[in-house]
Write a structure and sequence with these properties.
The chain is α+β, with helices and mostly antiparallel strands. Helix content is about 30%, strand content about 30%. The protein has three domains: about 220 residues, Bira Bifunctional Protein, Domain 2 (BirA Bifunctional Protein, domain 2); about 130 residues, YbaK/aminoacyl-tRNA synthetase-associated domain (YbaK protein), CATH 3.90.960; about 100 residues, Rossmann fold (3-Layer(aba) Sandwich), CATH 3.40.50. The chain has 15 helices and 29 strands. Strands 3, 7, 8, 9, 10, 11, 12, 21 and 24 form a nine-stranded mixed sheet that branches. A five-stranded mixed sheet has the order 16-14-15-17-20. Strands 26-25-27-28-29 form a five-stranded mixed sheet, sandwiched between helices. Strand 9 and strand 10 form a beta hairpin. Helix 2 runs antiparallel to helix 6. The longest helix is centred in the first third of the chain and has 21 residues. The model has no long low-confidence stretch (mean pLDDT about 95). It is found in: Cytoplasm.
Amino acid sequence: MKQSKLLMPTLREVPADAEVRSHALLLKAGYIRPVAAGMFSYLPLAQRVLNKIEAIVREEMAKIDANEMSVPEILPAELWQESGRYATYGPALYKFKNRQNRDFILGPTHEETFTQLMRDDIKSYKKLPLLVYQIQAKFRDENRPRFGLLRTREFIMKDAYSFSADQEGLDDAYRAMEQAYTNIFDRVGLTYRAIVGDAGAMGGSDSKEFSAPADAGEDIIAYSDATDYAANLEMAKDFYERQTSDEAPLDLVTLETPNVKSIEELAEFIDQPATELVKTMLFMADENQPVAVVVRGDFEVNDVKVQNFLKADSLELATDEQAAAVLGAHFGSLGPVGLPENVRLLVDERAADMANFTAGANHDDQHLSHINWQRDVTLPEENVGDFRVAREGDLSVDGKGKLVFTKGIEIGHIFKLGTRYSEALGAQVLDKNGRQTDMIMGSYGIGISRLLSAISEQKADEDGLVWPTSVAPFDVHIVPINLKDTEQARVTRQLESEFLAQGLEVLVDDRKERAGVKFADADLIGLPIRITVGKKAEEDIVEVKVRASNTNIEMRVSEVVDSVAVLLHDEN
Protein backbone atom coordinates (compact mmCIF):
# COMPACT_ATOMS: atom_id res chain seq x y z
CA MET A 1 0.00 0.00 0.00
CA LYS A 2 1.14 3.52 -0.73
CA GLN A 3 1.53 5.60 2.42
CA SER A 4 0.21 8.66 0.60
CA LYS A 5 -3.14 6.86 0.31
CA LEU A 6 -3.25 5.71 3.93
CA LEU A 7 -5.32 7.57 6.52
CA MET A 8 -2.59 7.93 9.13
CA PRO A 9 -2.89 11.36 10.79
CA THR A 10 0.22 11.41 12.98
CA LEU A 11 0.70 14.06 15.64
CA ARG A 12 3.92 15.80 16.58
CA GLU A 13 2.88 16.52 20.17
CA VAL A 14 1.52 14.12 22.77
CA PRO A 15 -2.10 15.02 23.64
CA ALA A 16 -2.42 16.52 27.11
CA ASP A 17 -5.15 14.10 28.19
CA ALA A 18 -3.08 11.00 27.39
CA GLU A 19 -2.12 9.66 30.84
CA VAL A 20 -0.35 6.46 29.81
CA ARG A 21 2.14 5.54 27.11
CA SER A 22 -0.17 3.37 25.02
CA HIS A 23 -2.84 6.07 24.84
CA ALA A 24 -0.31 8.74 23.86
CA LEU A 25 1.36 6.62 21.18
CA LEU A 26 -1.83 5.24 19.63
CA LEU A 27 -3.10 8.81 19.29
CA LYS A 28 0.23 10.22 18.12
CA ALA A 29 0.81 7.45 15.56
CA GLY A 30 -2.65 7.87 14.03
CA TYR A 31 -4.17 4.57 15.19
CA ILE A 32 -7.15 5.89 17.14
CA ARG A 33 -9.16 9.07 17.61
CA PRO A 34 -11.61 9.92 20.40
CA VAL A 35 -15.25 10.55 19.52
CA ALA A 36 -16.50 11.03 23.09
CA ALA A 37 -15.17 10.19 26.54
CA GLY A 38 -14.40 6.48 26.52
CA MET A 39 -15.39 6.01 22.86
CA PHE A 40 -12.87 5.75 20.02
CA SER A 41 -12.65 5.40 16.27
CA TYR A 42 -10.18 2.78 15.09
CA LEU A 43 -8.30 4.20 12.12
CA PRO A 44 -6.87 1.96 9.35
CA LEU A 45 -3.64 0.98 11.14
CA ALA A 46 -5.53 0.02 14.30
CA GLN A 47 -8.16 -1.82 12.29
CA ARG A 48 -5.47 -3.92 10.63
CA VAL A 49 -4.09 -4.88 14.06
CA LEU A 50 -7.59 -5.72 15.31
CA ASN A 51 -8.21 -7.85 12.21
CA LYS A 52 -5.06 -9.87 12.89
CA ILE A 53 -5.88 -10.33 16.56
CA GLU A 54 -9.38 -11.48 15.64
CA ALA A 55 -7.98 -13.88 13.03
CA ILE A 56 -5.75 -15.48 15.68
CA VAL A 57 -8.73 -15.76 18.02
CA ARG A 58 -10.82 -17.41 15.31
CA GLU A 59 -8.07 -19.90 14.50
CA GLU A 60 -7.69 -20.93 18.13
CA MET A 61 -11.46 -21.12 18.66
CA ALA A 62 -11.75 -23.39 15.61
CA LYS A 63 -9.21 -25.77 17.16
CA ILE A 64 -11.56 -26.40 20.10
CA ASP A 65 -14.71 -26.62 17.92
CA ALA A 66 -16.18 -23.32 19.11
CA ASN A 67 -19.02 -21.91 16.96
CA GLU A 68 -18.81 -18.26 15.93
CA MET A 69 -22.08 -16.37 15.73
CA SER A 70 -23.59 -12.98 16.55
CA VAL A 71 -26.40 -11.81 18.79
CA PRO A 72 -27.90 -8.30 19.06
CA GLU A 73 -26.01 -5.54 20.86
CA ILE A 74 -29.36 -4.03 21.94
CA LEU A 75 -31.21 -6.32 24.36
CA PRO A 76 -34.72 -6.33 25.84
CA ALA A 77 -34.62 -5.45 29.52
CA GLU A 78 -36.95 -8.30 30.45
CA LEU A 79 -34.23 -10.80 29.60
CA TRP A 80 -31.99 -9.28 32.26
CA GLN A 81 -34.94 -8.93 34.61
CA GLU A 82 -35.39 -12.71 34.36
CA SER A 83 -31.81 -13.29 35.50
CA GLY A 84 -32.01 -10.57 38.16
CA ARG A 85 -29.08 -8.59 36.79
CA TYR A 86 -31.17 -5.67 35.53
CA ALA A 87 -31.56 -4.52 39.14
CA THR A 88 -28.13 -5.55 40.44
CA TYR A 89 -25.64 -4.82 37.65
CA GLY A 90 -25.30 -1.20 38.71
CA PRO A 91 -25.02 2.23 37.05
CA ALA A 92 -22.63 0.96 34.36
CA LEU A 93 -25.63 -0.59 32.57
CA TYR A 94 -26.89 1.56 29.67
CA LYS A 95 -30.71 1.62 29.91
CA PHE A 96 -33.16 3.26 27.49
CA LYS A 97 -36.69 3.05 26.10
CA ASN A 98 -37.79 2.68 22.49
CA ARG A 99 -40.67 4.59 20.91
CA GLN A 100 -43.16 2.04 22.28
CA ASN A 101 -41.85 2.80 25.79
CA ARG A 102 -40.31 -0.67 26.08
CA ASP A 103 -37.15 -0.98 28.20
CA PHE A 104 -33.89 -1.98 26.51
CA ILE A 105 -30.19 -2.09 27.39
CA LEU A 106 -26.91 -1.96 25.50
CA GLY A 107 -25.22 -5.30 26.08
CA PRO A 108 -22.21 -5.22 28.42
CA THR A 109 -22.03 -9.03 28.22
CA HIS A 110 -24.31 -11.75 26.86
CA GLU A 111 -24.80 -14.63 29.29
CA GLU A 112 -28.59 -14.14 29.26
CA THR A 113 -28.81 -13.87 25.48
CA PHE A 114 -26.96 -17.09 24.79
CA THR A 115 -28.79 -18.90 27.60
CA GLN A 116 -32.15 -17.90 26.09
CA LEU A 117 -31.00 -19.21 22.72
CA MET A 118 -30.00 -22.57 24.18
CA ARG A 119 -33.17 -22.77 26.24
CA ASP A 120 -35.33 -22.35 23.16
CA ASP A 121 -33.39 -24.61 20.77
CA ILE A 122 -31.53 -27.30 22.72
CA LYS A 123 -33.69 -29.92 24.44
CA SER A 124 -31.47 -33.01 24.87
CA TYR A 125 -28.11 -33.75 26.46
CA LYS A 126 -27.18 -35.43 23.17
CA LYS A 127 -26.74 -31.94 21.63
CA LEU A 128 -24.25 -30.97 24.32
CA PRO A 129 -21.58 -29.92 25.06
CA LEU A 130 -21.54 -26.78 22.92
CA LEU A 131 -19.10 -23.87 22.71
CA VAL A 132 -20.35 -20.64 21.12
CA TYR A 133 -18.67 -17.25 20.79
CA GLN A 134 -18.83 -13.86 19.13
CA ILE A 135 -16.58 -10.84 18.55
CA GLN A 136 -18.63 -7.74 19.15
CA ALA A 137 -18.83 -4.26 20.67
CA LYS A 138 -19.80 -4.11 24.34
CA PHE A 139 -21.07 -1.12 26.33
CA ARG A 140 -20.48 -0.15 29.94
CA ASP A 141 -21.11 3.36 31.25
CA GLU A 142 -17.85 3.71 33.14
CA ASN A 143 -17.95 6.47 35.72
CA ARG A 144 -14.46 7.57 34.76
CA PRO A 145 -13.17 6.26 31.42
CA ARG A 146 -9.39 6.66 31.31
CA PHE A 147 -6.08 5.38 29.97
CA GLY A 148 -7.21 5.32 26.36
CA LEU A 149 -8.45 1.86 25.39
CA LEU A 150 -7.88 0.38 28.85
CA ARG A 151 -11.09 1.71 30.41
CA THR A 152 -13.73 2.69 27.88
CA ARG A 153 -17.50 2.90 27.53
CA GLU A 154 -17.52 1.03 24.24
CA PHE A 155 -15.04 -1.75 23.54
CA ILE A 156 -14.54 -4.81 21.35
CA MET A 157 -14.73 -8.15 23.12
CA LYS A 158 -14.61 -11.82 22.29
CA ASP A 159 -17.15 -13.45 24.58
CA ALA A 160 -17.67 -17.21 24.61
CA TYR A 161 -20.03 -19.52 26.48
CA SER A 162 -20.03 -23.26 27.08
CA PHE A 163 -23.13 -25.36 27.71
CA SER A 164 -22.85 -28.86 29.17
CA ALA A 165 -25.16 -31.47 30.61
CA ASP A 166 -22.79 -32.37 33.44
CA GLN A 167 -19.84 -31.09 35.45
CA GLU A 168 -17.38 -33.14 33.42
CA GLY A 169 -18.46 -31.32 30.26
CA LEU A 170 -17.95 -27.95 31.94
CA ASP A 171 -14.50 -28.96 33.18
CA ASP A 172 -13.49 -30.11 29.69
CA ALA A 173 -14.70 -26.85 28.12
CA TYR A 174 -12.92 -24.77 30.78
CA ARG A 175 -9.62 -26.57 30.20
CA ALA A 176 -9.96 -26.28 26.42
CA MET A 177 -10.65 -22.56 26.64
CA GLU A 178 -7.76 -22.03 29.05
CA GLN A 179 -5.39 -23.65 26.56
CA ALA A 180 -6.86 -21.65 23.67
CA TYR A 181 -6.36 -18.40 25.59
CA THR A 182 -2.79 -19.38 26.39
CA ASN A 183 -2.17 -19.96 22.68
CA ILE A 184 -3.79 -16.64 21.73
CA PHE A 185 -1.78 -14.54 24.16
CA ASP A 186 1.43 -16.35 23.20
CA ARG A 187 0.75 -15.67 19.53
CA VAL A 188 0.04 -11.95 19.96
CA GLY A 189 3.40 -11.58 21.68
CA LEU A 190 2.36 -10.66 25.21
CA THR A 191 4.03 -11.41 28.51
CA TYR A 192 1.23 -12.42 30.88
CA ARG A 193 0.25 -14.37 33.95
CA ALA A 194 -2.75 -16.63 34.53
CA ILE A 195 -4.01 -15.67 37.98
CA VAL A 196 -6.84 -16.45 40.38
CA GLY A 197 -9.55 -13.88 39.72
CA ASP A 198 -13.00 -12.75 40.82
CA ALA A 199 -16.08 -13.55 38.73
CA GLY A 200 -17.67 -10.27 39.80
CA ALA A 201 -21.09 -9.41 38.38
CA MET A 202 -21.02 -12.52 36.16
CA GLY A 203 -21.34 -14.91 39.10
CA GLY A 204 -19.83 -18.37 39.16
CA SER A 205 -16.65 -19.96 40.47
CA ASP A 206 -13.19 -21.21 39.45
CA SER A 207 -12.36 -17.82 38.03
CA LYS A 208 -9.04 -17.27 36.29
CA GLU A 209 -7.76 -14.00 34.82
CA PHE A 210 -5.03 -13.49 32.25
CA SER A 211 -3.12 -10.36 33.20
CA ALA A 212 -0.37 -8.56 31.30
CA PRO A 213 2.11 -6.86 33.66
CA ALA A 214 2.35 -3.15 32.81
CA ASP A 215 2.79 0.12 34.69
CA ALA A 216 -0.51 1.34 33.24
CA GLY A 217 -2.45 -1.57 34.69
CA GLU A 218 -5.26 -0.79 37.10
CA ASP A 219 -5.20 -4.26 38.66
CA ILE A 220 -2.68 -5.41 41.24
CA ILE A 221 -1.24 -8.88 40.70
CA ALA A 222 0.02 -10.64 43.82
CA TYR A 223 2.39 -13.48 43.07
CA SER A 224 4.76 -15.72 44.97
CA ASP A 225 8.46 -15.08 44.45
CA ALA A 226 9.15 -18.82 44.85
CA THR A 227 6.26 -20.66 43.15
CA ASP A 228 3.75 -20.17 40.34
CA TYR A 229 0.98 -18.90 42.66
CA ALA A 230 -0.56 -15.67 41.36
CA ALA A 231 -3.87 -13.92 42.00
CA ASN A 232 -5.63 -10.64 41.55
CA LEU A 233 -5.22 -8.63 44.76
CA GLU A 234 -8.99 -8.91 45.26
CA MET A 235 -8.58 -12.69 45.56
CA ALA A 236 -5.00 -13.05 46.82
CA LYS A 237 -4.43 -15.09 49.97
CA ASP A 238 -1.55 -15.13 52.40
CA PHE A 239 -0.46 -18.10 54.51
CA TYR A 240 -2.00 -18.44 57.95
CA GLU A 241 -2.42 -21.39 60.30
CA ARG A 242 -5.20 -21.13 62.88
CA GLN A 243 -4.00 -21.12 66.50
CA THR A 244 -5.63 -21.05 69.91
CA SER A 245 -4.59 -18.31 72.32
CA ASP A 246 -3.44 -19.39 75.78
CA GLU A 247 -3.99 -15.94 77.31
CA ALA A 248 -6.13 -15.86 80.43
CA PRO A 249 -9.29 -13.76 79.85
CA LEU A 250 -9.16 -10.35 81.53
CA ASP A 251 -12.13 -8.34 82.74
CA LEU A 252 -13.93 -6.32 80.09
CA VAL A 253 -13.14 -2.61 80.41
CA THR A 254 -14.87 0.40 78.83
CA LEU A 255 -12.46 3.08 77.60
CA GLU A 256 -13.36 6.69 76.95
CA THR A 257 -11.76 7.57 73.60
CA PRO A 258 -12.88 11.08 72.58
CA ASN A 259 -12.33 11.97 68.89
CA VAL A 260 -10.50 8.70 68.22
CA LYS A 261 -11.63 7.63 64.73
CA SER A 262 -8.92 5.39 63.29
CA ILE A 263 -6.84 2.39 64.30
CA GLU A 264 -3.72 4.56 64.19
CA GLU A 265 -5.28 7.11 66.54
CA LEU A 266 -6.54 4.38 68.87
CA ALA A 267 -3.15 2.64 68.98
CA GLU A 268 -1.48 5.91 69.96
CA PHE A 269 -4.22 6.92 72.43
CA ILE A 270 -4.15 3.67 74.45
CA ASP A 271 -0.51 2.80 73.69
CA GLN A 272 -1.23 -0.59 72.13
CA PRO A 273 0.01 -1.96 68.81
CA ALA A 274 -2.49 -2.36 65.95
CA THR A 275 -1.98 -6.13 66.16
CA GLU A 276 -3.83 -6.11 69.52
CA LEU A 277 -6.78 -4.14 68.13
CA VAL A 278 -9.56 -5.10 65.78
CA LYS A 279 -11.24 -3.08 63.06
CA THR A 280 -14.99 -3.43 62.46
CA MET A 281 -16.54 -2.34 59.17
CA LEU A 282 -20.27 -2.32 58.40
CA PHE A 283 -21.52 -3.25 54.94
CA MET A 284 -24.95 -3.51 53.34
CA ALA A 285 -25.39 -6.72 51.32
CA ASP A 286 -28.07 -6.75 48.61
CA GLU A 287 -29.03 -3.23 49.75
CA ASN A 288 -30.69 -4.05 53.08
CA GLN A 289 -28.74 -6.80 54.92
CA PRO A 290 -26.27 -5.28 57.42
CA VAL A 291 -23.01 -7.22 57.75
CA ALA A 292 -20.29 -6.41 60.30
CA VAL A 293 -16.82 -7.60 59.28
CA VAL A 294 -13.98 -7.79 61.79
CA VAL A 295 -10.28 -7.91 60.90
CA ARG A 296 -7.11 -7.44 62.93
CA GLY A 297 -6.20 -3.80 63.26
CA ASP A 298 -3.21 -3.90 60.93
CA PHE A 299 -5.26 -5.35 58.03
CA GLU A 300 -7.94 -4.00 55.70
CA VAL A 301 -11.28 -5.65 54.91
CA ASN A 302 -11.43 -7.26 51.45
CA ASP A 303 -15.00 -6.52 50.29
CA VAL A 304 -14.71 -8.87 47.28
CA LYS A 305 -13.96 -11.84 49.53
CA VAL A 306 -16.84 -10.80 51.78
CA GLN A 307 -19.28 -10.54 48.85
CA ASN A 308 -18.19 -13.91 47.48
CA PHE A 309 -18.55 -15.53 50.89
CA LEU A 310 -22.08 -14.13 51.24
CA LYS A 311 -22.93 -14.98 47.61
CA ALA A 312 -24.44 -11.49 47.49
CA ASP A 313 -25.40 -9.74 44.27
CA SER A 314 -24.19 -6.43 45.71
CA LEU A 315 -22.15 -5.23 48.68
CA GLU A 316 -21.63 -1.60 49.63
CA LEU A 317 -19.84 -0.01 52.57
CA ALA A 318 -22.49 1.43 54.84
CA THR A 319 -22.71 5.18 55.19
CA ASP A 320 -21.92 6.83 58.50
CA GLU A 321 -25.63 7.50 58.89
CA GLN A 322 -26.50 3.84 58.28
CA ALA A 323 -23.88 2.76 60.84
CA ALA A 324 -25.42 5.07 63.44
CA ALA A 325 -28.93 3.82 62.66
CA VAL A 326 -28.00 0.12 62.76
CA LEU A 327 -25.32 -0.03 65.46
CA GLY A 328 -25.89 3.17 67.42
CA ALA A 329 -22.46 4.62 66.65
CA HIS A 330 -20.48 6.06 63.76
CA PHE A 331 -17.44 4.56 62.05
CA GLY A 332 -14.44 4.65 64.36
CA SER A 333 -16.43 3.37 67.33
CA LEU A 334 -17.88 0.15 65.86
CA GLY A 335 -17.20 -3.28 67.33
CA PRO A 336 -18.50 -6.87 67.54
CA VAL A 337 -19.95 -6.80 71.07
CA GLY A 338 -23.71 -6.47 71.42
CA LEU A 339 -24.62 -6.50 67.74
CA PRO A 340 -28.36 -6.41 66.93
CA GLU A 341 -29.84 -9.76 65.83
CA ASN A 342 -30.36 -8.57 62.25
CA VAL A 343 -26.62 -7.87 61.78
CA ARG A 344 -24.58 -10.75 60.39
CA LEU A 345 -21.09 -11.00 61.88
CA LEU A 346 -18.10 -12.19 59.83
CA VAL A 347 -14.65 -12.44 61.43
CA ASP A 348 -11.33 -12.82 59.69
CA GLU A 349 -9.42 -15.88 60.89
CA ARG A 350 -6.52 -13.82 62.25
CA ALA A 351 -8.93 -11.76 64.36
CA ALA A 352 -10.81 -14.91 65.41
CA ASP A 353 -7.64 -16.24 67.08
CA MET A 354 -7.13 -13.10 69.18
CA ALA A 355 -7.80 -12.76 72.92
CA ASN A 356 -8.14 -9.74 75.20
CA PHE A 357 -8.35 -7.40 72.21
CA THR A 358 -9.71 -3.88 71.91
CA ALA A 359 -12.56 -2.77 69.63
CA GLY A 360 -15.22 -0.12 69.33
CA ALA A 361 -18.05 -0.22 71.88
CA ASN A 362 -20.81 0.71 69.40
CA HIS A 363 -21.08 3.95 71.33
CA ASP A 364 -19.43 7.08 69.97
CA ASP A 365 -16.10 7.94 71.64
CA GLN A 366 -15.93 4.63 73.50
CA HIS A 367 -14.00 1.38 73.05
CA LEU A 368 -13.99 -1.92 74.89
CA SER A 369 -10.74 -3.54 76.02
CA HIS A 370 -10.09 -7.19 76.88
CA ILE A 371 -12.77 -8.57 74.55
CA ASN A 372 -12.81 -12.36 74.21
CA TRP A 373 -14.71 -14.48 71.75
CA GLN A 374 -17.48 -16.71 73.07
CA ARG A 375 -17.46 -14.96 76.45
CA ASP A 376 -18.32 -11.52 75.05
CA VAL A 377 -19.32 -12.39 71.49
CA THR A 378 -20.74 -15.67 70.22
CA LEU A 379 -18.66 -16.66 67.21
CA PRO A 380 -19.82 -19.70 65.18
CA GLU A 381 -16.99 -21.27 63.19
CA GLU A 382 -18.95 -20.87 59.94
CA ASN A 383 -18.66 -17.09 60.37
CA VAL A 384 -14.84 -17.25 60.31
CA GLY A 385 -12.86 -16.95 57.07
CA ASP A 386 -10.29 -15.03 55.06
CA PHE A 387 -11.78 -11.53 54.77
CA ARG A 388 -8.57 -9.48 54.66
CA VAL A 389 -6.57 -7.79 51.90
CA ALA A 390 -3.28 -9.63 51.36
CA ARG A 391 -0.11 -7.59 51.91
CA GLU A 392 3.09 -7.48 49.93
CA GLY A 393 5.91 -9.31 51.67
CA ASP A 394 3.63 -11.69 53.60
CA LEU A 395 4.04 -15.42 53.10
CA SER A 396 2.18 -16.74 50.04
CA VAL A 397 -0.81 -19.00 50.66
CA ASP A 398 1.24 -22.01 49.50
CA GLY A 399 3.74 -21.27 52.26
CA LYS A 400 6.70 -21.35 49.86
CA GLY A 401 7.45 -17.76 49.00
CA LYS A 402 6.63 -14.15 49.77
CA LEU A 403 3.95 -12.16 47.97
CA VAL A 404 5.20 -9.63 45.42
CA PHE A 405 2.90 -7.02 43.88
CA THR A 406 2.93 -5.70 40.34
CA LYS A 407 0.45 -3.79 38.20
CA GLY A 408 -1.31 -5.64 35.42
CA ILE A 409 -3.84 -5.21 32.62
CA GLU A 410 -6.64 -7.77 32.55
CA ILE A 411 -6.71 -9.14 29.00
CA GLY A 412 -8.84 -12.26 29.45
CA HIS A 413 -11.09 -13.95 31.97
CA ILE A 414 -12.54 -17.45 32.19
CA PHE A 415 -14.92 -18.76 34.83
CA LYS A 416 -17.38 -21.52 35.55
CA LEU A 417 -20.91 -20.18 35.83
CA GLY A 418 -22.55 -23.44 36.83
CA THR A 419 -26.36 -23.11 36.71
CA ARG A 420 -26.52 -19.43 37.75
CA TYR A 421 -28.19 -18.37 34.46
CA SER A 422 -29.68 -21.62 33.19
CA GLU A 423 -31.66 -22.01 36.42
CA ALA A 424 -32.87 -18.40 36.37
CA LEU A 425 -33.94 -18.59 32.72
CA GLY A 426 -35.17 -22.17 32.69
CA ALA A 427 -32.55 -23.56 30.27
CA GLN A 428 -32.91 -27.30 30.73
CA VAL A 429 -32.28 -30.48 28.76
CA LEU A 430 -33.34 -34.09 29.20
CA ASP A 431 -30.43 -36.00 30.69
CA LYS A 432 -29.49 -39.60 29.86
CA ASN A 433 -32.05 -40.81 32.42
CA GLY A 434 -34.84 -38.82 30.82
CA ARG A 435 -34.99 -36.22 33.60
CA GLN A 436 -34.96 -32.45 33.16
CA THR A 437 -31.64 -30.93 34.29
CA ASP A 438 -30.22 -27.40 34.19
CA MET A 439 -27.51 -26.79 31.64
CA ILE A 440 -24.12 -26.15 33.23
CA MET A 441 -22.37 -23.08 31.84
CA GLY A 442 -18.97 -21.45 31.51
CA SER A 443 -18.18 -17.89 30.39
CA TYR A 444 -14.96 -16.77 28.71
CA GLY A 445 -13.89 -13.30 27.54
CA ILE A 446 -11.00 -11.52 25.84
CA GLY A 447 -10.75 -7.74 25.55
CA ILE A 448 -9.85 -7.48 21.87
CA SER A 449 -9.52 -3.70 21.71
CA ARG A 450 -7.76 -3.66 25.08
CA LEU A 451 -5.03 -5.86 23.58
CA LEU A 452 -3.98 -2.88 21.43
CA SER A 453 -3.08 -1.03 24.61
CA ALA A 454 -1.61 -4.02 26.42
CA ILE A 455 0.76 -4.82 23.54
CA SER A 456 1.66 -1.15 23.19
CA GLU A 457 2.41 -0.81 26.90
CA GLN A 458 4.73 -3.81 26.91
CA LYS A 459 6.48 -3.37 23.55
CA ALA A 460 6.79 0.37 22.85
CA ASP A 461 10.02 2.30 23.34
CA GLU A 462 10.97 5.97 23.43
CA ASP A 463 10.65 6.26 19.64
CA GLY A 464 7.18 4.78 19.26
CA LEU A 465 5.18 1.60 18.93
CA VAL A 466 6.78 -1.80 18.34
CA TRP A 467 4.40 -4.43 16.96
CA PRO A 468 5.05 -8.17 17.06
CA THR A 469 5.01 -9.61 13.54
CA SER A 470 1.88 -11.63 14.25
CA VAL A 471 -0.31 -8.55 14.70
CA ALA A 472 1.60 -5.73 12.96
CA PRO A 473 -0.49 -3.64 10.52
CA PHE A 474 2.08 -4.36 7.78
CA ASP A 475 5.05 -6.71 7.75
CA VAL A 476 7.50 -4.48 5.90
CA HIS A 477 7.90 -0.72 5.63
CA ILE A 478 9.84 0.37 2.53
CA VAL A 479 11.14 3.92 2.87
CA PRO A 480 12.72 5.32 -0.31
CA ILE A 481 14.57 8.57 0.33
CA ASN A 482 13.87 10.06 -3.11
CA LEU A 483 11.51 8.38 -5.56
CA LYS A 484 12.58 10.82 -8.29
CA ASP A 485 15.86 8.95 -8.30
CA THR A 486 15.58 6.27 -11.00
CA GLU A 487 17.55 3.60 -9.11
CA GLN A 488 15.72 4.18 -5.84
CA ALA A 489 12.38 3.93 -7.63
CA ARG A 490 13.47 0.74 -9.39
CA VAL A 491 14.68 -0.98 -6.20
CA THR A 492 11.53 0.10 -4.35
CA ARG A 493 9.28 -1.41 -7.02
CA GLN A 494 11.36 -4.58 -7.16
CA LEU A 495 11.29 -5.15 -3.39
CA GLU A 496 7.60 -4.38 -3.11
CA SER A 497 6.79 -6.83 -5.90
CA GLU A 498 8.94 -9.60 -4.41
CA PHE A 499 7.53 -9.15 -0.90
CA LEU A 500 3.96 -9.20 -2.18
CA ALA A 501 4.74 -12.38 -4.12
CA GLN A 502 5.86 -13.93 -0.80
CA GLY A 503 2.49 -13.04 0.74
CA LEU A 504 3.84 -10.24 2.91
CA GLU A 505 1.98 -6.98 3.57
CA VAL A 506 3.98 -3.96 2.47
CA LEU A 507 3.69 -0.25 3.19
CA VAL A 508 5.66 2.03 0.85
CA ASP A 509 6.38 5.57 2.02
CA ASP A 510 5.92 7.40 -1.27
CA ARG A 511 5.34 10.77 0.37
CA LYS A 512 7.30 13.86 -0.60
CA GLU A 513 8.76 14.35 2.86
CA ARG A 514 12.24 14.81 4.26
CA ALA A 515 14.10 11.65 5.25
CA GLY A 516 13.99 12.62 8.93
CA VAL A 517 10.20 12.90 8.87
CA LYS A 518 9.88 9.52 7.16
CA PHE A 519 12.19 7.82 9.65
CA ALA A 520 10.41 9.38 12.65
CA ASP A 521 7.02 8.26 11.36
CA ALA A 522 8.34 4.78 10.61
CA ASP A 523 9.62 4.39 14.17
CA LEU A 524 6.39 5.85 15.53
CA ILE A 525 4.01 3.43 13.80
CA GLY A 526 6.28 0.50 14.66
CA LEU A 527 6.24 -1.97 11.77
CA PRO A 528 8.59 -4.96 12.33
CA ILE A 529 10.97 -4.34 9.40
CA ARG A 530 11.97 -1.06 7.75
CA ILE A 531 13.95 -1.04 4.52
CA THR A 532 15.58 2.23 3.61
CA VAL A 533 16.27 2.69 -0.10
CA GLY A 534 18.84 5.47 -0.44
CA LYS A 535 21.91 6.51 -2.40
CA LYS A 536 23.40 3.00 -2.39
CA ALA A 537 20.45 1.74 -4.44
CA GLU A 538 22.61 2.12 -7.54
CA GLU A 539 24.96 -0.43 -5.93
CA ASP A 540 21.96 -2.69 -5.18
CA ILE A 541 22.43 -2.10 -1.42
CA VAL A 542 19.72 -1.11 1.05
CA GLU A 543 19.54 -0.74 4.82
CA VAL A 544 17.32 -3.11 6.80
CA LYS A 545 16.20 -2.07 10.28
CA VAL A 546 14.66 -4.49 12.79
CA ARG A 547 12.31 -2.30 14.82
CA ALA A 548 12.19 -4.48 17.95
CA SER A 549 15.95 -4.40 18.47
CA ASN A 550 16.64 -1.11 16.63
CA THR A 551 19.45 -2.82 14.73
CA ASN A 552 20.45 -1.74 11.21
CA ILE A 553 22.02 -4.02 8.59
CA GLU A 554 23.25 -3.12 5.13
CA MET A 555 22.22 -5.82 2.68
CA ARG A 556 22.33 -6.58 -1.02
CA VAL A 557 18.91 -6.33 -2.67
CA SER A 558 19.17 -9.94 -3.86
CA GLU A 559 19.45 -11.09 -0.24
CA VAL A 560 16.72 -8.94 1.25
CA VAL A 561 13.58 -11.02 0.69
CA ASP A 562 15.00 -14.25 2.12
CA SER A 563 16.67 -12.42 5.01
CA VAL A 564 13.50 -10.52 5.91
CA ALA A 565 11.55 -13.79 5.94
CA VAL A 566 14.02 -15.14 8.51
CA LEU A 567 13.92 -11.91 10.56
CA LEU A 568 10.13 -11.89 10.64
CA HIS A 569 10.08 -15.53 11.71
CA ASP A 570 12.58 -14.80 14.50
CA GLU A 571 10.42 -11.90 15.74
CA ASN A 572 7.38 -14.14 16.21
